[in-house]
Design brief:
alpha/beta, Rossmann fold, 2 domains, two-stranded antiparallel sheet
């Protein structure tokens, strides 16, 4: 548990019965400090309360011993797909955030937003307001043209 606190992992495969604390207690403690970690439980116990508690903790799978390698591989592939989806969603969120920032700045540059609204949105979107001058460059790619031929720059000083 201490090693996991010092070096968090993406995936923890644990048994139910271990000396000191059981696998479900381990999952609870790791989740508290590393909520994005995924868990697979391996167990020789086919007891419903273990499975139920594991599912409540959000484990990926509860695999009985002897381990079915095909089931383990399938679970690992599902974990990988989840990570890829999370990465795509995080990227989309970052892109959406940048688009919002760009939209607010564009409206401000063109005088389409009141100062009070700009200040409020800038604070919300993390746009610095302490600068005396701002410069915005807008690139628009036109079909069949080189990018630099379609450069438009707008300054507001």
């Amino acid at each position: 548990l201490e090693q996991l606190r010092q070096r968090p992992v993406d995936l923890l495969i644990t048994d139910i019965q271990m000396p000191g604390l059981n696998g479900l207690e381990l999952i609870q403690r790791v989740k508290a400090s590393s909520p994005r970690t995924k868990f697979i439980v391996l167990s020789g116990y086919e007891e419903f309360h273990y499975v139920k508690e594991g599912m409540q903790l959000g484990i990926e799978n509860y695999i009985l011993k002897p381990i079915n390698i095909v089931e383990l591989e399938s679970t690992l592939k599902l974990c990988l797909q989840d990570w890829e989806r999370e990465e795509i969603n995080q990227f989309r969120s970052e892109v959406d955030w940048k688009l919002l920032q760009s939209n607010v700045l564009q409206r401000w540059v063109h005088g389409e937003i009141e100062q009070g609204e700009f200040v409020q949105r800038a604070q919300l979107l993390g746009i610095p307001q302490s600068y005396v001058h701002y410069r915005a460059a807008v690139f628009r790619l036109l079909p069949g043209r080189r990018p630099l031929q379609s450069l438009c720059r707008v300054d507001r000083l």
